[in-house]
Amino acid sequence: MHELSIAMSIIEMVEEESRKHGGVQVTAVHLKLGALSGVVKEALLGSFEMACEDTVLKGAKLVVEDIPVLIYCQACQAQRPVSSIQLFCCAECGTPSAEVVQGKELEVVALEIEEWEHNPA
Amino acid sequence: MGTQPRLIEVRKNVLKQNDLVARALREQFRAAGVFVVSLVSSPGSGKTMFLEKTLTLLREDYRVAALVGDLATENDALRLARSQAPVKQITTGTLCHLEAAMVEKALGEWDLNQFDFLFIENVGNLVCPSSYDLGENVRLVLISVTEGEDKPLKYPTIFNSADVAVVTKMDLAAAVEFDWPTAYGNIQAVRPGMPVFKLSTKSGEGIEEYLAFLKARLNEARAAAVTPEGARHS
Question: Do the chains contact at B192 and A96, CB–CB below 8 Å?
Answer without folding.
Answer: yes
